[in-house]
Specification:
Blueprint lengths: L17 H11 L5 H17 L3 H15 L13 H6 L2 E3 L2 E2 L18 H6 L14 E4 L9 H4 L2 H15 L14 E3 L5 H10 L9 H6 L11 E2 L4 H4 L7 H14 L14 E7 L3 E4 L1
Parallel strand pairs: 4-5, 4-6
Antiparallel strand pairs: 1-2, 3-7, 6-7
Amino acid sequence: MARGSLRSPWRYRADPVGRTVEMMVETRGVTDAPAAQMFGNAGREYMQKYGATAEDFAEIARINHAHSTKNPYSQFRTPYTLSQILSSPTVHHPLTKLQCCPTSDGGAAAIIVSEAFLTAHPHLRSRAILIAGQHLATDAPSLYDRSAISLMGYDTTARAATVALAEAGISSSREEEEDKIRVCELHDCFSTNEMITLDALGLCEKRGKAHEMVRAGHITYGGGRCVVNPSGGLISKGHPLGATGIAQAAELVWQLRGWAGERGVRGGVRVALQHNLGLGGAAVVT
């Protein structure tokens, strides 16, 4: 396997992110860090539309780095202050280095069984976690509406969440304690993407209010809403691409089983939400 980040070596077929990059270049130009630029552009648009600040995105990274200190599987386990995150090298404003996921190696696995299997192996039933709803959505027409937020799959994520939550009979904003989503692992390849994904998943009160959720401390322990990325997220736990989604699922299974140790959400959880994204393009919500 080649060292470094995964690349597409094939020249005889279209690059899956080709149209996404073309739209970015057409609307906002291109730099020498195109991935960070794509998600950074979405952050800039969020700031312009809704009033978020660079400090709000840095706070997301600060929280994820803090969460990682309790995860023995995390690639990085160093906490940082908000000042340290803001003063780390700028990659593409508002993103600094400590708000970007690293190049990672890693693996994850899940065992999926049927109800018949559990009936035949009743000693395993207490460990079983039900996949109550799941949906994969592909790029929406809004990919071409010239919005940097749309370009990063906002509507794709929103559609996947709507279908998966309906299938499970759960509302992301439901207040009833029994069915409240109190833990979530989402695709924070960059802190800006966590912000727009909080919106797309419906975890904040209404669109454009995710930064207020961050400021109020509602994405971490003791915040009273939903602990987001207790694993440390892609920013700290790491982002081994093909293994990322299953690693998120593993973290949530440990949370639901009460096996997460120090990073377990206090009081236990009954419902967990998982989101993964790939540009060019699809999103899956479970």
